[in-house]
Specification:
The chain is mostly helical. The chain folds into 2 domains: about 100 residues, no CATH class; about 90 residues, no CATH class. The chain contains 7 helices and 3 strands; from the N terminus they run H-H-H-H-E-H-H-E-E-H. A 3-stranded antiparallel beta sheet has the order 1-3-2. Helix 1 packs across helix 4. The longest helix has 23 residues.
Length: about 190
């Protein structure tokens, strides 16, 4: 039976405000002094911080730290972070209403089959948009699982996501297990041309 989740369409922008803000806040302690990687060669404390963070964090982590620092900064906190938290509540409320009608919600893991390794590395926005169906679970904190459910014409895997209400992990795992008992998608592997 279909359920309405009207605010799920806002999951991507909300997630990419909240997650970088949390990453920025949590990773601020990784300064190379007490936590995280420490550069081997540095001139002074400021140089050690700079080099340790440059060496210790990859491009995506740095991008998230910068975005997170921006949305948490004075003058932007209310406009971005606080609004994102309010929309996060709307998304959670949509799921609560849906779970009053059903035990689990099933849908695709992504809007398209898996893409080939390295296919979208030059376009992080396209990779972010591919998360539209999975990040709602992250935002609401409710349990979710993604399991194999087929392949497209090119042999690329397709995932099925199953989500359940808070504290319904046993129900979620039972549904996933039952699906896997009825199918053999989890036993198959994609065939890649050499």
């Amino acid at each position: 039976m279909p359920v309405a989740l009207p605010n799920v369409r806002l999951s991507v922008p909300v997630y990419y405000v909240i997650a970088p803000a949390e990453a920025s806040s949590n990773l601020s302690r990784f300064d190379g002094v007490r936590y995280g990687h420490r550069a081997e060669h540095y001139a002074d404390l400021t140089d050690m911080y700079r080099k340790s963070r440059a060496e210790g964090f990859g491009a995506e982590v740095k991008r998230r730290i910068l975005v997170g620092t921006y949305v948490l900064s004075h003058g932007y906190y209310d406009a971005y972070y606080l609004k994102a938290q309010q929309v996060r509540r709307l998304i959670a409320d949509d799921f609560a209403r849906a779970y009053a009608q059903c035990d689990v919600i099933m849908g695709p893991t992504a809007p398209s089959p898996a893409f080939r390794i390295g296919a979208k590395t030059d376009d992080p926005v396209q990779m972010y948009l591919n998360d539209i169906f999975t990040i709602a679970g992250n935002l609401t904190g409710a349990p979710a699982i993604s399991i194999p459910c087929g392949f497209d014409r090119d042999g690329l895997p397709i995932g099925l996501q199953i989500q359940a209400n808070y504290f319904a992990e046993a129900k979620l795992l039972n549904v996933a297990h039952t699906f896997q008992q009825a199918t053999d998608w989890h036993c198959r592997a994609p065939e890649f041309a050499a």
